[in-house]
Design goal:
The structure is a homodimer. Chain A is α+β, with helices and mostly antiparallel strands. The first copy, chain A, has helices at about 1-15, 190-195, 200-205, 235-265, 280-290, 330-335, 340-345, 360-375, 390-400; strands spanning about 30, 40, 50-55, 60-65, 75, 75, 80-85, 95-100, 105, 115, 120-125, 145-150, 155-165, 180, 215-220, 275-280, 300-305, 345-355, 380-385. In chain A, the strands form three sheets. An eight-stranded mixed β-sheet of chain A has the order 12-13-15-14-16-17-18-19, with helices on both faces. In chain A, strands 4, 5, 8, 9, 10 and 11 form a six-stranded antiparallel β-sheet that branches. The termini of chain A are far apart.
Chain lengths: ~400, ~400
């Protein structure tokens, strides 16, 4: 039987390894590494050292999200067959990354993976000095629950994650407002809790008395009607299909998700206690859905969401020239009467990272300027120094959530 | 703004792709593929075709868990740079696998990943004809909740997953029995719901009236005391450290987890309504912990758990020759008085897969024979044709859970 111990011990080895003493400049293992993995390591100045043992590889690079810098970074092979590279200082926050091993994009076996780019992708968590709003702190913690529901829209079982705030089970007669919070393109319903750390942001805000205890619902932003062909075809077909896909997801949210959540949890089931927000594609979906259903939503947030003024249910043809933003006609005329809008919508919140591409910044900035000029009340938040990445959206949520249900 | 649509559309492409008509022998995409991925594909006879586009690779293989067969399987490069291989028919169920790309073990970008071998690892779900006990069926579904708790034993926040049965929130005065269910070595607290599909097995058993509604707690089977060095050193040190690690986890279960669960959920907090079970290392841990704490557990299950009769808190030296199994002395004498044991322990359940290695089968079979000969009442279950893999443990849970709390 001794051999069995070895089986267990050897497999266990991957989970624990000793942490040697470090010199001043040595890199610390990223919190996103699998337990015991020393690489990737982050230096005090946020340079990152990536390494991979690959004696038989003939080319190896590391590449990744905006915040990593201007990669791909070629790696250099050491005498023991381990390739490595140290990148320039990265932006703080969460960055997707991958190795390119003899031309194939592969994950880092030393890192946790996260659903992004339509597949499991390595990610690295680069700490931001002095920032703990998304850390696991010694405060009461809510739960994140996997909720299955059968969608009438798609005919399939779907999974949403539902954050219930601290005390939800104990205060069994308290009812709570609801925030529906959507991920971006290529991501899924796991994004806001894994990459976004939304549950810890809410735990910390609620513990500090900065946000009202609320239920947060994180659904999967993709939906197809039974028998519907998935998006395919040429360029204009794509645009049309994307819109059609949005209408399917709209039906999921309006006809399936909201009724299921209101029936399953102790919600306050009215528009004054229901918000929707999302990042990137999820922001597009939020503006598309919530602005058409102001009877259901009084709080609306778009985090780095591309502004597409013509994206309404009544207009499913391709955009010719949606800019400049015309507040009279945008989003089916939702803002045409600013005083009515201001009365109905308790919060319209738009944000972007200052390091995002000009397309995002000018599109969102243009809409903000036009809406303000027309007298539409809104909050605008710019995340300093961060790109089209999760650190922007964590900060967005941290600014957005305290403004809800007041 | 049209370009922004392209950003979204291109990223979305990874999540949807059209499904062409198939010839008779064509492979169907595995359910464990990321959405839209056609490879790996499973043939009707359970041969599996793996493929990867890697024009610049010079060697590529696929390898994986026992149920895949006798790999690694060398892959062949096609004219378009895509390498592929079709394996012999595999065992049904869930199999870990990976590519070996120019000598480096990497995940399949087309597959979901699962925590195994101490890291994220690709997995393939091979359907078993006529088997739906772990499928998502049209029945009421419980929730799986991520529960954080601060461990006094380790000084750190830990995460357990907690399955609450259908109706838990509605029947707000009902109390439920609890099963603590542990993963294997190299896996983590996500294993039983992701690889094991424990929540669907319970949903289906409960819907059919075959199992009593229960809470299932799936914790992380690793624990170190504050400042404790992780296991390291030579062979005998490993064995000692493994035992020490088990005592840390024992303290987590007894002093931290059970009190937290009983305080947070509507449990029936007595031994007659508390069970512990686990697979492989988790089975070792179950026997180690539960047999020492029969004041807390009346139901005990070890799924393919190596039998280590000398593994007790009082004996932390290396085993010299723990076989043959002596029912008088094994596990600190827990079975020394069979009639007392039979009176106290409502269920002792041991199982193994018929295709597991001789070490597992003879160790578990020897203990079963010795215990039965001594008059210890137990249930023994052999999973036909399955190896040291999740299909064995899914079947184990499906047999074990109905016997609990009766």
């Amino acid at each position: 039987m001794k051999d069995l111990f070895w089986i267990a011990a050897i497999a266990l080895l991957g989970l624990w390894s000793s942490t040697p003493a470090r010199a001043e400049d040595e890199a610390m293992p990223a919190a996103s590494n699998v337990p015991g993995a020393q690489s990737p390591g982050i230096h005090a100045d946020r340079r990152i050292t990536f390494s991979l043992k690959a004696p038989d590889a003939t080319s190896l690079q590391v590449a990744g999200g905006d915040g990593l810098g201007m990669g791909p970074f070629p790696m250099t092979k050491g005498t023991d067959g381990t390739w490595s590279v140290t990148t320039p200082p990265s932006v703080p926050g969460f960055h997707y990354y991958w190795f390119v091993l003899n031309g194939v994009a592969v994950n880092d076996p030393a890192s946790e993976t996260y659903f992004g780019y339509g597949k499991e992708t390595s990610g690295i968590e680069v700490p931001e000095a002095g920032t703990d709003f998304y850390a696991i702190q010694k405060v009461p913690h809510g739960e994140v629950r996997a909720k299955l529901y059968l969608s009438k829209t798609t005919g399939e079982w779907r999974r949403a994650f539902v954050y219930t705030p601290p005390g939800y089970d104990e205060h069994s007669s308290t009812r709570y407002p609801v925030l529906i919070l959507q991920h971006g393109s290529g991501e899924d319903e796991t994004g806001w809790t894994r990459q976004g750390r939304a549950q810890f942001i809410l735990d910390n805000l609620i513990a500090a008395g900065k946000a009202r205890p609320m239920i947060v619902v994180m659904d999967r932003g993709y939906a197809l009607r039974p028998g519907a062909a998935p998006p395919s075809g040429g360029s204009s077909a794509w645009l049309q299909n994307l819109r059609l896909a949005f209408t399917s997801f709209e039906d999921v949210v309006i006809r399936d998700l909201i009724p299921v959540i209101d029936a399953s949890y102790r919600t306050i089931p009215d528009r004054e206690h229901r918000a929707m927000a999302g990042l990137s594609m999820g922001g597009m979906q939020t503006l598309f859905i919530a602005l058409q259903h102001l009877d259901l939503f009084a709080y609306i947030g778009s985090f780095s969401g591309p502004i597409v003024p013509s994206l309404t249910a009544g207009n499913l043809t391709a955009d010719s020239n949606p800019e400049p933003f015309d507040s009279k006609t945008a989003y089916g005329g939702a803002f045409a009467d600013p005083s009515t809008f201001n009365q109905r919508v308790k919060l319209l919140w738009l944000g972007v990272g200052s390091a995002e591409s000009d397309q995002f910044r000018s599109g969102i900035g243009g809409a903000v300027a036009a809406l303000r000029k027309a007298g539409v009340r809104l909050e605008y938040f710019e995340s300093s120094g961060t790109a089209h990445e999760w650190q922007t959206w964590r900060r967005d949520l941290n600014d957005f959530a305290p403004r809800l249900f007041r």
